[in-house]
Each structure stands twice: as structure tokens, then as C-alpha cells.
Specification:
Blueprint: H1 2-26
């Protein structure tokens, strides 16, 4: 159970990170 929860959390964090990276890339001031 704990491992499943960890896996779900990792996937969620990965998705969030990807969204944030894409958002930052679209802002001209950043990068």
C-alpha cells in the first residue's frame, strides 16, 4: 500500500513539474 501511494505521489509530482516547466518556458522573462 505504501509503495503504491509513493508511486502515485511521484507521478503526481512529475506531472506538476512538467506543467510548471512548460509554464515557465512560455514566460519570456524567465530562461
Amino acid at each position: 500500500m505504501a509503495r503504491e501511494r509513493e508511486k502515485i505521489m511521484l507521478v503526481g509530482v512529475g506531472e506538476l513539474g512538467g506543467i510548471v516547466l512548460e509554464y515557465l518556458c512560455r514566460i519570456p522573462n524567465v530562461g
